[in-house]
């Protein structure tokens, strides 16, 4: 098995459709279909169960998935080690983070980076739950959960305050919540339970009993938009919501705190371009501590 075949299999396994896999691989959909068919023919067995809407792994595909992911990690490790001693301030750095952190901290850092080192480019990959930064081949990550992996370099960048917000129109229609009343009678806007389970038990200091969750969304920027449109009460980062004239802080004594971590592959800590990006990020968090 060669990596070029395996990466097509991995993209389809992760994306679930040929179209999404093609977008990730930057090829056309027909190419992905041909490569998967040729790979299955070479193996003499099907890797996917095809339905009109999606591709799901066959028993063989499920058995192969972990091994192919190990291949991916090895290929990425070789690439990182090949550039770990690069002292040139040029080239691309891949950053994985959330859309909210990207808007508030990463983009301002990249403006400064661009002014200092115009030959350094950045690929920004945004998601909510980044459980393994090698999953998408990122060089470093800015995330709200501290990883357990001992082999990674980990540094706390900031501690972010979060609070409850709504519009005045929503409060006129539903009334101001009372502390300790479990937000009964109110519409709540939340991250899905599988992403942030603790919020479904304790929503910024308010214990929830059979909560009326009218919207679940995996993007805080979209949760902020839903809150601004009067759909309900959202738990939002204070550095975003406090500046918004359309939002009202609810129960301001209730606060939730999230540590923000920088996670870096140790193979890359000596690469000059990566050090330059990390330095710009540190300065951005210092200027805007949240």
TrEMBL record:
<dbReference type="InterPro" id="IPR000847">
    <property type="entry name" value="LysR_HTH_N"/>
</dbReference>
<feature type="domain" description="HTH lysR-type">
    <location>
        <begin position="1"/>
        <end position="58"/>
    </location>
</feature>
<dbReference type="InterPro" id="IPR005119">
    <property type="entry name" value="LysR_subst-bd"/>
</dbReference>
<dbReference type="GO" id="GO:0003700">
    <property type="term" value="F:DNA-binding transcription factor activity"/>
</dbReference>
<dbReference type="GO" id="GO:0043565">
    <property type="term" value="F:sequence-specific DNA binding"/>
</dbReference>
<dbReference type="InterPro" id="IPR058163">
    <property type="entry name" value="LysR-type_TF_proteobact-type"/>
</dbReference>
<dbReference type="InterPro" id="IPR036388">
    <property type="entry name" value="WH-like_DNA-bd_sf"/>
</dbReference>
<keyword id="KW-0805">Transcription regulation</keyword>
<keyword id="KW-0238">DNA-binding</keyword>
<comment type="similarity">
    <text>Belongs to the LysR transcriptional regulatory family.</text>
</comment>
<dbReference type="Pfam" id="PF03466">
    <property type="entry name" value="LysR_substrate"/>
</dbReference>
<dbReference type="InterPro" id="IPR036390">
    <property type="entry name" value="WH_DNA-bd_sf"/>
</dbReference>
<keyword id="KW-0804">Transcription</keyword>
<dbReference type="Pfam" id="PF00126">
    <property type="entry name" value="HTH_1"/>
</dbReference>
<dbReference type="GO" id="GO:0006351">
    <property type="term" value="P:DNA-templated transcription"/>
</dbReference>
<protein>
    <submittedName>
        <fullName>Cyn operon transcriptional activator</fullName>
    </submittedName>
</protein>
């Amino acid at each position: 098995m060669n990596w070029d075949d395996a990466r097509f299999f991995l993209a389809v396994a992760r994306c679930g459709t040929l179209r999404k896999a093609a977008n990730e691989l930057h090829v056309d959909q027909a190419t992905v279909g041909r490569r998967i068919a040729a790979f299955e023919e070479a193996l003499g067995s099907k890797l996917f169960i095809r339905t009109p809407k999606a591709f799901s792994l066959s028993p063989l595909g499920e058995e192969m998935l972990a091994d192919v992911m190990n291949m991916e990690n090895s290929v990425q490790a070789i690439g990182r080690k090949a550039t770990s001693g690069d002292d040139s301030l040029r080239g691309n750095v891949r950053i994985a983070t959330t859309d909210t952190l990207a808007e508030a901290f990463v983009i301002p850092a990249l403006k400064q980076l661009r002014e200092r080192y115009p030959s350094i480019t950045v690929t920004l990959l945004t998601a909510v739950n980044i459980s393994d930064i090698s999953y998408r081949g990122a060089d470093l990550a800015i995330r709200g959960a501290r990883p357990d992996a001992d082999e990674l370099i980990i540094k706390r960048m900031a501690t972010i305050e979060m609070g409850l917000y709504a519009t005045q129109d929503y409060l006129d229609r539903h009334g101001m919540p009372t502390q300790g009343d479990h937000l009964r009678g109110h519409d709540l806007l939340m991250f899905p339970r599988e992403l942030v389970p603790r919020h479904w038990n304790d929503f910024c200091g308010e214990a929830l009993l059979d909560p009326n969750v009218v919207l679940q969304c995996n993007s805080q920027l979209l949760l902020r938009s839903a809150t601004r449109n009067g759909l309900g009460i959202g738990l939002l980062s204070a550095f975003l919501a406090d500046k918004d004239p359309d939002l009202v802080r609810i129960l301001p004594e209730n606060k939730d705190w999230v540590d923000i971590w920088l996670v870096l592959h140790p193979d890359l800590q000596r690469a000059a371009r990566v050090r330059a990006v990390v330095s710009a990020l540190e300065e951005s968090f210092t200027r805007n501590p949240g």
